[in-house]
Write a structure and sequence with these properties.
The chain is α+β, with helices and mostly antiparallel strands. It has helices at about 1-15, 20-35, 40-45, 45-55, 60-65; strands spanning about 70-85, 85-95, 105-120, 120-135. Helix content is about 35%, strand content about 40%. Strand 1 and strand 2 form a beta hairpin.
Amino acid sequence: MKYFFLMFLLVSCFDRGDSPEGALRDFTLARLEKIVERDFVVARTTGKMRVSVESMSEDEFKLFSDLRKYKRDTFKIISKSCQEKRCYVTYSLGYHEQDEAKKGWVSEVKKIAEIIWVEGKWLIADVSNIKTYHETSETIEVTP
């Protein structure tokens, strides 16, 4: 009985995308692991974000969808504020570029995602940047 309770507790702690945080985590991590198809993004978005993705040309979408050169370091949910069918999730994402020329670059972005419950699932409606932090051991040149 003790082991059953422990197993139940462990399984219930895993987020399978059926919460606002899970939907955001699944979407964000999938985008960093592979090239995503337009259908993948459209199926997980709504509102302003879906319109933006649907209106991209093929070249624009190719740039948007191919994030394989970035390697995720951290993904943290900072806070969540929900009303009935709408949540705002503040999160941070740490990553670095997998490029030998930019070996010393590490970045962290803090964002707010608006996530809406639509037809039985959580969909991402909008994502806004709050802060971007870049750290490097190289000199940053700001003029051409």
